[in-house]
Amino acid sequence: MKFPCEYSLKEIAAIINCDYVGDDNFPVQGMNEIHVVTPGDIVFVDHPKYYDKALQSAATIVLINKEVECPEGKALLISDDPFRDFNKLTLHFKPFQQLNDLISDSAEIGEGSIIQPNAVIGNHVKIGKNCLIQSNVSIGDNCIIGDNVIIHSGTVLGGDAFYYKKRAEGYDKLLSGGRVVVQDNVEIGTNNSIDRGVTGDTVIGEGSKLDNLIQIGHDTVIGKNCLLASQIGIAGCVVVEDDVTIWGQVGIRSDVTIAKGTVLMAQCGVSKDTEPNTTYWGTPFGEVRTKLKEYAAIKRLPEIVKNIK
């Protein structure tokens, strides 16, 4: 998430009422999660296990719960609760805006696009040309829809990320200030749920086609010309490269990359990165021919055991 203008370190520290290490006028341009940070961004870290990763990331401002040595060219925001203060910044720069009509006055809808009855189009949404948004679709604030996009009934774009911190009193939610971006020539089936990024974008790439009943988590990027069948569950921060085919009931854990040209057969449980142009099957998943040979060998076990003397 980039801020509407550049802020100073001192100004940001005042918003969250914390101490800082660095020049008062050190430039702050935005805030992001660690996997998408760029220079000028704030990243937060609240566990010693991840201090080095945050301090060595591309982010130039680190919101941290301990005063440590500040790397050259960077600044620190010292907080007793970085998770809480990251939420404060999200609320400050992306406050909740109530929607008073089914289609917000601030929404931009391109020439030739059709919005069917009972669709909800949020604040500052942009919809391109020649799109069809069917009844009972919900498109959350700030989402971007390209040209020639079809979104079928019951689909929700821009729901909050499933991201919580466990505290003694219960689960504390990390607020979502990102977007969903749907590129040109995409078709999205009925009753899909595509969560917005926490600070960045969840992206559906150009020409990709999604069946019904698919869940796509926050900050996941689906590449171009991908084909996704029904009942797929994709966690947050997944990268699906171009020309990938994913068949029904596949589950993909967070922070993995599905390489270009991968085929995931039905009911795969994907726990790590894949190799390009390779077909996988099973849970735990593996290359399809290897897994089928393993399965055939397992079927022979009763006979093998019976013949052991």
UniProtKB/TrEMBL annotation:
Alphabetized NCBIfam families for the sequence: PRK00892.1
Name assigned to this protein: UDP-3-O-(3-hydroxymyristoyl)glucosamine N-acyltransferase
Domain UDP-3-O-[3-hydroxymyristoyl] glucosamine N-acyltransferase non-repeat region: start-end pairs: 26-90
Biological processes, Gene Ontology terms: lipid A biosynthetic process
Keywords assigned: Acyltransferase, Lipid A biosynthesis, Lipid biosynthesis, Lipid metabolism, Repeat, Transferase
Gene3D superfamilies associated with the record: Hexapeptide repeat proteins (2.160.10.10), MurE/MurF, N-terminal domain (3.40.1390.10)
GO molecular function: N-acyltransferase activity; UDP-3-O-[(3R)-3-hydroxyacyl]-glucosamine N-acyltransferase activity
Presence of the UniProt keyword Signal in the record: no
